[in-house]
Amino acid sequence: xxxxxxxxxxxxxxxxxxxxxxxxxxxxxxxxxxxxxxxxxxxxxxxxxxxxxxxxxxxxxxxxxxxxxxxxxxxxxxxxxxxxxxxxxxxxxxxxxxxxxxxxxxxxxxxxxxxxxxxxxxxxxxxxxxxxxxxxxxxxxxxxxxxxxxxxxxxxxxxxxxxxxxxxxxxxxxxxxxxxxxxxxxxxxxxxxxxxxxxxxxxxxxxxxxxxxxxxxxxxxxx
Amino acid sequence: xxxxxxxxxxxxxxxxxxxxxxxxxxxxxxxxxxxxxxxxxxxxxxxxxxxxxxxxxxxxxxxxxxxxxxxxxxxxxxxxxxxxxxxxxxxxxxxxxxxxxxxxxxxxxxxxxxxxxxxxxxxxxxxxxxxxxxxxxxxxxxxxxxxxxxxxxxxxxxxxxxxxxxxxxxxxxxxxxxxxxxxxxxxxxxxxxxxxxxxxxxxxxxxxxxxxxxxxxxxxxxxxxxxxxxxxxxxxxxxxxxxxxxxxxxxxxxxxxxxxxxxxxxxxxxxxxxxxxxxxxxxxxxxxxxxxxxxxxxxxxxxxxxxxxxxxxxxxxxxxxxxxxxxxxxxxxxxxxxxxxxxxxxxxxxxxxxxxxxxxxxxxxxxxxxxxxxxxxxxxxxxxxxxxxxxxxxxxxxxxxxxxxxxxxxxxxxxxxxxxxxxxxxxxxxxxxxxxxxxxxxxxxxxxxxxxxxxxxxxxxxxxxxxxxxxxxxxxxxxxxxxxxxxxxxxxxxxxxxxxxxxxxxxxxxxxxxxxxxxxxxxxxxxxxxxxxxxxxxxxxxxxxxxxxxxxxxxxxxxxxxxxxxxxxxxxxxxxxxxxxxxxxxxxxxxxxxxxxxxxxxxxxxxxxxxxxxxxx
Lengths: 223, 617
Hints:
Chain A is an alpha+beta fold. In chain A, about 25% of the residues lie in helices and about 15% in strands. Classes of the chains: A alpha+beta, B alpha/beta.
């Protein structure tokens, strides 16, 4: 079967990509790195963390920002993944993320990758970053339909119907498996507000690394 | 109720109603809008009912409870036709007077007439009142004439004639061309060309299509859609019928928020009556076209005014927006092409079909046509709903219609477009009001809220209020809106408490820009407008909070101090009596003193002091 392609420009490179694929997939196919938090292959893109934003201009139109995980490629799109506007936005998003959940490894990793040295907001200690991966895993892959979002805005949390484990939950622990909050950063943040990320900056061997190979999670899970 | 099966029937029905109405020598119309209901118009109506029955005048004089004429400040409003005598602030006790003077003898009741405070004269007819003089009331004018619960009233003023015209004299493409030529743009805020939206929806190949009317107006201080839906629901229905026919939809939804019980009730009554009359349902007017409307009640979430969240809510899912790369005209309700328009947009449609696109496009500016209803509230003399042509200046709205400042404090800004709009300073009041010019100065048309603020308003406090409102109303799906607004609120709280520092403003600005750039839906994308526009035009006020630790407007309680001027205090003791914390000490006829440690800074003393001796620093 012949596959249809469309021509897009990503960071100045003209690429032919498969029709119907998202910008994120297209970029990754060609080795262009776009960081993500709430995205996972084989789960429906959610577009909640906004870390994967890119600047898109449609046939010379005014550039706008959208998430690459949800935006489908179209003929003639010009996409910037590293423009100053995007870098600034991602840095701020990473700062917001790590300030709300400093003890989640993924938040620390993103902050480190963005080169964040200081967080200007008061630190909180949330363990859930509301990425919704567990919900989608449960619903789409495990056919569990046991999890969902409850509440709105700041009161939003992940819960089971009426906070009781429904019969549809088979304790498969798919939710645990995908949850970024289940992976504690190294041995955890010692000082409140301290940014971890040493394994990314590689200035010194992290003493907390059990294997001494800075194995961490970074290498298995390139962000 | 009679059932109409053809255009002839409709015409005959109209003539019958008109000839019946000829028996009435006079019409007493009492406003039954939400504002006037709060003032007690139901009691006024009952009083009229009782008095008219007593005087055996029910045959000659018709009593009507109508929709909102807009001048909510002066309610309850009563208008006597055909003399067009406009009575304001009518109490049940005034009713016998009106009956004996006006209705029986044709004289006016002087103390109920509107008084022009500048010209010092009484005004009889409402067209001469300054509040109404500069308005162009295309949509609202019918509100005062019809009882929204009676379809006959709407038919009598020419209702459903546009629908008949569209159905039998125009092809769907002609209707769309007409709407496109009129230049009508979405009144919900974004200003997307309505005709183009319809065309896109019509061109979708799907067999099933939907039309939706968005009546989920949640902006603080805005009630335009409410007044239209409560006062003239049939005009919205007629617009939806025409739109559905043009697009090829057979089913429609009206999404009314839970907080609008009267709008919900009146829309429900209107739908039932239209169904009984054969104007909704199967084979409408014998044309073979089917269309029906259902009402969905929203739970009152602000974010459900966003089209994709609204659709999710109708489908029974959580009201959360989705990425809008695929537009709702392609995939909307249940994945089918869906055309969603605001109440005011729908209400404009019958007018355009009736009077033609040329007439409509002659009103307004080059890019924004027609009229717009604003709810003018805040620190102006005349508050209420005003309908003005696009392109009118802010000055005309605030000073000519609104009557200018209220309590002797200079007006310093106006906030347009609700919580997602921006604050426009007084120096820009010559700005013509249309979609483009408002967004150029960092605000937006929005759905049409207009909050006027005077010198007693602190811009930090305003920004804080709107950010906290949006923070409460954010659905929480995306990170910048959920976390970013929370952090913006924290920074603004700090500034208002005098804990801000050099970094606060730059961080606030950067954060606001990123939230606007990266948020998922319109709520987050525009949430920064109040903050950014306040920073742009009123930066000195923010700096005063940070550097001098002072609130120039005397609003932010942690930064102000109440004291009593020794020279002005007459020692009447009124302040000491009202003080809830007993923080005011002093002998009778002696100068009083406020104990700063106990003072809760509620400001009650300032309000009661007749000598104006209480000072805020």
